[in-house]
């Protein structure tokens, strides 16, 4: 047989699937892959169930149901004062993962460069490579994950087509500051670069900080694609309803990609997400408050077990340095070990780097019930008791 596509055929299985399988195999508490262990609001699920039964369950419009596109525009206006034309500037996708692929495939030509900030969500590099483009990595380093301005400036050049910005950032749990965002915006404008903004954790920002969409910064309205995900906003990660917001000309090639990737997204889920996005402000602040309490609970538990716990300003995740426990192997080895010997699964942070080595951190997901978080902390404490 002739060879399959080199980029795709050469890939391993995504770390999230690998670690979830391992957790199932060993019956461990799965704090690896990022998903809540309790489904989101009952009224949102009820809206989906009602829509499913009432129908129609046929192809909705390619760009998404009007009521969802209107709700996405209204949500952007309500939370960020962003004025979005729902008919020309919103595309509904089957999850943020599709939105990302649509953006890369829609924008990139072979030889274009894309700036990717590490550590990163693992879908970005293969899709960039499959588009024939070249990733230019800029590394953020633990424990403070500061944006290295000199390296960033150096990464921008005549071939740079786009930068991917993920804030709040998985797995660093970093919320980019206003100064960092201004610096990124200034570079995008200076070098005529598009920003693809993965903002799936926009409502998971803690400690009273604000989520600041890059699209709102001077010069960015016409050159930013803002990606969201209902999975994260409503604790329904299996739903895979996402979206892209951007200026009409910028969105046009993304829409054309979408038409041949999935064409559309289940209509009953779209209706329910439209309903959910109109929920009262208290829902959104409550989600962040609940997750912040879980962050605090797991962070304290991990610290008690002897980890050096890094700060987490947003997302579902907290990372922890395991070296104080006396473990001197790699992060992959550590995550295997705790699955087998403590009954707790995490994800090695090295899986989020492509340019080498950060091998002393494990990422733990805290979007779990409190007793599960406590049990996981207790198990780790017991395994590593002096
Ligand atoms: N981006 C980031 C940073 C993520 O962590 C995830 C995780 N699910 C996604 C995108 C994908 O979102 P979706 O499930 O909506 O495809
Ligand atoms: N975003 C989730 C995480 O970081 C996982 C998504 C997936 O499994 N593809 O854990």
- Ligands present: 4'-deoxy-4'-aminopyridoxal-5'-phosphate, glutamine
- SS elements, strand count: 13
CATH superfamily of the largest domain: Type I PLP-dependent aspartate aminotransferase-like (Major domain)
Summing up helix and strand content along with how strands pair, one would put the structural category as alpha/beta
Tell me, rounded to a whole number, the average pLDDT: 97
Q: What is the helix tally?
A: 14
Q: State the order of secondary-structure elements, H for helix, E for strand.
A: HHEHHEHEHEHEHEEHEHHHEEHEEEH
Strand content: 5-15%
Give start-end ranges of low-pLDDT stretches.
none
Span between termini: 56 Å
- The percent range for helix content is 40-55%
Q: Profile the largest sheet.
A: 7 strands, mixed
The CATH class of the largest domain, by name, is Alpha Beta
Return the CATH topology of the largest domain: Aspartate Aminotransferase, domain 2
Placed side by side, the strands forming the largest sheet appear as 2-8-7-6-5-3-4
Shape: globular
Number of separate structural domains: 2
The second-level CATH architecture of the largest domain is 3-Layer(aba) Sandwich
Rg (CA only): 21 Å
């Amino acid at each position: 047989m002739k060879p399959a596509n080199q980029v795709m055929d050469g890939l391993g299985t995504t770390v999230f699937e690998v670690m979830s399988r391992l957790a199932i195999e060993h019956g461990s508490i799965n704090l690896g892959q990022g998903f809540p262990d309790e489904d989101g609001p009952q009224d949102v699920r009820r809206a989906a169930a009602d829509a499913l039964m009432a129908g129609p369950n046929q192809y909705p419009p390619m760009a998404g149901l009007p009521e969802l596109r209107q709700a996405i525009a209204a949500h952007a206006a309500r939370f960020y004062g962003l004025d979005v034309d729902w008919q020309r500037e919103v595309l509904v996708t089957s999850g943020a993962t599709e939105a990302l692929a649509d953006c890369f495939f829609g924008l990139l030509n072979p030889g274009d460069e894309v700036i990717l900030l590490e550590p990163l969500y693992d879908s970005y590099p293969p899709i960039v490579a499959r588009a024939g483009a070249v990733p230019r990595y800029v590394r953020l380093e633990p424990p403070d994950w500061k944006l290295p301005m000199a390296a960033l400036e150096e990464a921008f050049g005549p071939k740079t087509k786009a930068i991917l910005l993920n804030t709040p950032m998985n797995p660093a749990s970093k919320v980019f500051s206003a100064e960092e965002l201004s610096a990124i915006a200034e570079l995008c404008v200076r070098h005529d670069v598009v920003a693809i903004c993965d903002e799936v954790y926009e409502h998971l920002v803690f400690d009273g900080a604000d989520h600041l969409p890059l699209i709102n910064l001077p010069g960015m309205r016409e050159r930013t694609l803002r990606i969201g995900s209902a999975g994260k906003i409503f604790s329904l990660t299996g739903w895979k309803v996402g979206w892209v917001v951007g200026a009409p000309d910028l969105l046009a090639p993304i829409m054309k990609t979408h038409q041949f990737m999935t064409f559309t997204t289940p209509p009953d889920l779209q209706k329910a997400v439209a309903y959910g996005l109109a929920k009262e402000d208290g829902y959104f602040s409550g989600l962040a408050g609940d997750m912040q309490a879980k962050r605090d609970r797991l962070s304290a538990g991990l610290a008690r077990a002897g980890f050096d716990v890094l700060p987490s300003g947003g997302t579902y995740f907290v990372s922890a340095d395991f070296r104080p426990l006396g473990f001197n192997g790699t992060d992959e080895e550590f995550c295997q070990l705790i699955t087998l010997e403590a009954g707790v699964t995490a994800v090695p942070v090295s899986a989020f780097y492509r340019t080498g080595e950060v091998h002393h951190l494990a990422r733990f997901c805290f979007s779990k019930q409190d007793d599960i978080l406590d049990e996981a902390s207790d198990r780790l404490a017991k395994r590593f008791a002096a």
